[in-house]
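Worked example 3. Consider a protein that binds alpha-D-galactopyranose.
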Amino acid sequence: MKKMFLMLMSFVAVLQLYSQQTVIRIGTNETDLILCTAPTGRLYQSYLGPRLVVNSDAENLSYFVSGPAADAPVTPRGWEVYPASGAEDYFEPAFAIQHNDGNMTSIFRYVSHNQTKKDGNVTETVIHLKDDVYPVEVSLYYLAYAKENIIKTWTEIKHTEKKPVTISRYASNMIYFESPAYYLTEFSGDWASEVRMSNQQLQFGKKVLETKLGSRAAMHCYPFFELGLGQEVSENQGDVVLGTIAWTGNFQFTFEIDNVGNLRVISGMNPYASNYELKPNELFTTPEFIFTMSDQGTGKASRNLHKWARKYQLKDGEKDRYVLLNNWEATYFNFDEARLEVLMNEAKELGVDLFLLDDGWFGNKHPRVGAHAGLGDWEVMRSKLPNGIPHLVETAKKAGIKFGIWIEPEMVNPKSELYEKHPDWVIQLPNRKPYYYRSQLVLDLANPKVQDFVFGVVDKIMKENPEIAFFKWDCNSMITNIYSPYLKEKQNQLYIDHVRGVTNVFKRVRDAYPDVEFMLCAGGGGRCDYEALKYFSEFWCSDNTDPVERLYIQWGFSQIFPAKAMAAHVTSWNRSASIKFRADVAMMCKFGFDISFADLNEKEQEFCKLAVKNYNRLKKVILDGDQYRLVSPYDTNHTAVMYMNEEKSKAVLFTYDIFPRFSEKVFPVKLQNLDPNRRYKVEEINLMPGAKSRLKANGKTYTGDYLMKIGIEAFTGGKMNSRMIEITAE
Ligand code: GLA
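Given these inputs, the predicted complex is written out as structure tokens:
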């Protein structure tokens, strides 16, 4: 009897403990992230996966008190949401600290949370945690975008100890998965070989993706990943997670499989060489980590990100874009007013909206005639352009187009007046021989004066030329000679404070000139992160504009970014590819040219004009529609991508034969997500003048069902052959 009574009492006690547990549901229309406090007050991840059919909090609670959090009173090791160093979890923590007394532990306990609807679609959840031994607080932020199925999350850290504490880990987020196997797709590369995709199965231990470039996130590794749960990621089926970190500097993703086969993914800034001294009451805000999950492969997950980015993150994501002509590959540094006038008139003839003047327009004492001098001296080079920028803006205006200009304001050549005047504004070591990347050094953006200078570069150009409509903002060097004269003995803050300085300037520029378009560039596609893209409307994908290479590069970036954010130009790289092939490839993104009429015969010029017209007619579908990656260049010698508007009334299909083998069997291209019952007219467009379509389906009408199940015979055995096909509902 006594035994029974004791058992009953302990059952009641357990129930009471559980009833004190708090369940927090962070949900989109398709995903649920469920967090739950343990009776100890610590916060655990109970569930992350497809949305659950649970309606009330009571129901939620009964589900989740039996999850990993329930084990916490017995063994505190569970899926703690923000585990810190020095406790009982023996794997990689999200957070690590050294307190004023030298102690290196923290344990955070739940204090409170609140959820607010930002609008009908977005819910913000803020969870406050606190260490009950030390005055250190952490707030976890989550924005859940219901329709787009995106969760964006970041963390704020604060303390009120007497003196600064040192934080050596400060993840944006940590999430856990339990699956029989985990497969990672990573994106690696280099200058002119961006975003090469490769897959691997993760095994016990850690796999780290990170960069240490300082001034940009990417080059050898890109700030995003794809994860296949249970199987390798694939385009149209399987459980996948796509994640990306919004930080224009050193980032780190840690994928760690623990002793029981669970995977933790930790995302944030790279803490490398960055033990940060946090002052009392100073707020440390981590970058945003953005992720989406799909049970139908990466195609759907990418579309989630594309839609979300256009609506919520990308600068001017829902606005139109200019088609432009850039002079870089047409002239490099060799131009003068007359040459630019010719190009601007060609731009007009082509039918583009804007002329973009690239590098080489500035510097007098140290003229910018090559990459070795002049960077930092943002005065027009009088010998080259005696009438200054206003005259060029005027010439463009006369030609009926807008004017844009290239800058690289965060950098300096040692051969410049800026360097002569302000060597203390430059990141460089006081006691070692400098190492130059592209003959340049990085300005010390941790220094507020330098931030003012960089803002001033844009401000001055805009004040003198209020009609400038576009900037290409380059960043050709990573941080070398790592020493900030401004930070002095706090060099361990350089990587973080520098990027914060850069971001401050980006914000100031966007706020001062909200209607101007800005392109990110970092020696090609080195700056492609969702923080910078809040202030920039697009990024240059690569200096490699060989259309064959671009098919892979664009395929890679499209995993994470919408076509609207990806700049692609027709150039003279790979002249053995036809102008049509080159244009068809660039037309899949934000379209432009980097070529002069001198490089094109009459027929080719005519074709380019037609391409601009076709693009303008269809760019709403390409830039604002849904993208379907139908055939991967990684799998075959062909590739196909389709774009479709929301109403499913118009689609544009691009198909490419890259280097097919002799007599290779080709398959029809099956379209996706059309209305099966509607009839669609198929028309091959964007043909060379005088050329006739040899597409069997050309001019014919099919049901959506037919086009999805049987497809269009668009591939051929030709080399570097392409097709643009317009599909219109009747
Ligand atoms: C970088 C860019 C190019 C061009 C040059 C100019 O390499 O990626 O597009 O602007 O700088 O120097």
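Take a moment to read the result before moving on. The chain has 14 helices and 36 strands. The pocket of alpha-D-galactopyranose is lined by residues 328, 358-359, 371, 406, 474, 476, 521, 523-524, 540, 543 (CB under 6 Å).
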